């Protein structure tokens, strides 16, 4: 019999569905899983428009999956990082081959 490490209640399926429903959110988390980056760096690495990346960053911040690593007042050179929750979420997404 195969065992599952996490019960259905422990796996954040709502957040997983939210992330995988947008290629931009996937690109942002994929890039940030490698280390902190600016929106311009993320856009360049994922060959996406900065506007799409910025929107995805805000959506992910709203769910506490991404955090701003510099003061909120800074308008240029804003560096973002992935949260611990998002790291676990990203591991599940990759392990389940959802991207």
What does this structure look like?
The protein has 99 residues and is mostly helical. It has one domain: Winged helix-like DNA-binding domain superfamily/Winged helix DNA-binding domain (Arc Repressor Mutant, subunit A, Orthogonal Bundle). It is built from five helices and two strands. It has a two-stranded antiparallel sheet with strand order 1-2. Helix 2 crosses helix 3, helix 2 crosses helix 4 and helix 3 packs across helix 4. It is globular and about 35 Å long.
From the structure above, extract its key features.
about 50% helix, mainly alpha, Arc Repressor Mutant, subunit A, 2 strands, about 5% strand, single chain, 5 helices, about 100 residues, plasmid
Gist of the model:
The chain has 5 helices and 2 strands. The protein has 99 residues and is mainly alpha-helical. Pfam families: HVO_A0261_N.
Task: Provide the fold topology.
Blueprint: H1 13-20, H2 23-32, H3 39-46, H4 50-62, E1 66-68, E2 80-82, H5 84-95
Antiparallel strand pairs: 1-2
Helix pairs in contact: 2-3, 2-4, 3-4
* Radius of gyration computed on alpha carbons: 14 Å
Distance between the termini: 27 Å
Q: Return the CATH architecture.
A: Orthogonal Bundle
Order of helices and strands: HHHHEEH
Roughly how much helix do the residues carry, as a percent range? 40-55%
Average pLDDT, all residues: 91
Strand order of the largest sheet: 1-2
The overall strand count is 2
* Morphology: globular
Number of separate helices? 5
Give the class-level CATH name. Mainly Alpha
Number of domains: 1
Q: Going by CATH, what is the homologous superfamily? A: Winged helix-like DNA-binding domain superfamily/Winged helix DNA-binding domain
Domain HVO-A0261-like N-terminal: 13-67
Protein name: Transcriptional regulator
Pfam family, one: HVO_A0261_N
InterPro entries: ArsR-like_HTH, HVO_A0261-like_N, WH-like_DNA-bd_sf, WH_DNA-bd_sf
């Amino acid at each position: 019999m195969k065992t599952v490490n996490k019960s259905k209640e422990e796996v954040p399926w709502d957040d997983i569905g939210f992330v995988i429903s947008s290629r931009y959110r996937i690109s942002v988390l994929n890039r940030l899983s490698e280390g902190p980056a600016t929106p311009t760096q993320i856009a360049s690495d994922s060959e996406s428009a900065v506007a799409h990346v910025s929107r995805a960053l805000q959506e992910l911040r709203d769910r506490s999956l991404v955090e701003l690593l510099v003061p909120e007042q800074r308008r240029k050179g804003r560096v973002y990082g992935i949260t611990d929750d998002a790291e676990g979420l990203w591991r599940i997404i990759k392990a389940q081959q959802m991207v």
